[in-house]
Every structure is written in C-alpha cells, then in structure tokens.
Amino acid sequence: MYGLVNRAIQQMVCTEHGESVWDEVKRRADLGDLDFFATYEAYPDDVTHRLVAAVSEVLNLPAKAVMQAFGTFWITYTANEGYEQLLESTGETFPEFLDHLDHLHARAGLAFPQLQPPSFRCTHEPNGSIELEYRSSREGLAPMVTGLLEGLGQRFDTPIEVEQTASREQGAPVDLFHIRHGHATDGVIGKDGGEPPACQPRHNPVTKSDAPDGGSAPM
User: Fold this and answer.
1) How far is CA 11 from each of CA 30, 131, 171, rounded to the nearest angstrom?
2) Are 217 and 146 in contact (CB under 8 A)?
3) What is the DSSP code (8-state) at residue 162?
C-alpha cells in the first residue's frame, strides 16, 4: 500500500495516544528504525498489516476494531491532507458519493500509478436503502469499509446503519453491505424481518470519538 495509508495510521495513533505509543507500535511491528513513510512510495502490504496488528496489540483491541476505526479516520485525514477537492468532486450527497467511488479511485490513480483499487457497485432499493458490493484483491479490509461508510455519514451529516450481509471470509464471492441512511433509518424493517438497530452514537475505541453505529460487521 502507499505510504499515505501508513502515514494515516501513524497520525491516528499519535493524535489520540501520543508519540510514545506510536514508538511502541513501530517497535512491535519491527519498524523501529523507520523515521517516516513517504506519501507517494508504495510499501509492501505486509508493512500495513504489521502496523494494524501492532496497534491492536498495544491498544488491546481486536484488529477488526482497529480497521473500522481507521476507515472512519481516513475520510477526515484525506480531506485534511490535500484531497478535499477530490472528495468534493466525487459527490454532493452520501448516495451520490457511493455511486462514484470507482471514479474517485480512477482519479486517485493519476497520482498513485501503482494503486490497486477496490471496486464498488451500488444498488438503490425502493425504500431508500443501498446494497453495496465491495470487491478487492486484498483480504481482510471489509471492516475498514464499514468505517469508511461511517466516516462518510459524518462528512455528509447523515445518520447511517451498516450491516454486512455477505463476507468473503465466510466463503461468499464478494463482500456485501446493506446501508440505511437519512430517513431510510427511520422505522425500516431489518433484513431479517425484525426491527433495525437503533442509530445511536458509537464510541470509536481508537480515536476516542463518537460515530454513528455501524451495526455488526478499505480506500
């Protein structure tokens, strides 16, 4: 993955837990001699996986929780790192943004020529909910997608509920997410016929902030 991703992990940890915690993360990831990540340099995926595992160990959190928290953090981080215009051009509403995720990655590929982007496909349901299909050559990033969706909900000031309904880790060909957003979160019957989960603030265990509930479950 590109250094931008690893720099974001560093920023998330340093901002919320301090430089000393980041130094410990680097040590446990066997990256203690690394001073910085170059934004436009491609690093082996193993570097990112080791960082996530180290954050999980140091903060005593499940790796999936770290990935989900990172997905939420990624939206704000990229906006602050000079990509706000790219985000703005992708969509003016939450559904429009999801529809154009592949276009966003195509434009990002101009700056990151070795980018191996995921693919997203949206189906808009009559009740206003969205079925999101996520495909990637990488494994284990579905929790980050849930976090990304939560971060986008915050960006557009839109309450959302996310339920992962199919997982490649459990043998499905793709990862699928059922998303209720805005007014679609009010009184909608759940996928199993029951009541949907309440859209309550969810505490982010890594960044110490509250985020919309992501339900049960990258860029």
Assistant:
1) 18, 32, 34
2) yes
3) E
Q: What is the 3-state secondary structure (H, E, C) of 67-97?
A: HHHHHHHHHHHHHHHHHHHHHHHHCCCHHHH
pLDDT, averaged in runs of 10, over the chain (219 residues) = 96 96 97 91 96 98 97 96 96 97 95 93 96 95 97 96 96 96 60 40 57 34
Q: Locate tokens 């880790």: which residue? A: 169
Residue type, 178: H
Name the 3-class secondary structure at 117: coil
Strands (E), the chain: 119-124, 130-135, 160-166, 175-181, 201-203, 210-212
Does this model's pTM top 0.70? My answer is yes
Closest CA to 58 of 101, 17, 103: 17
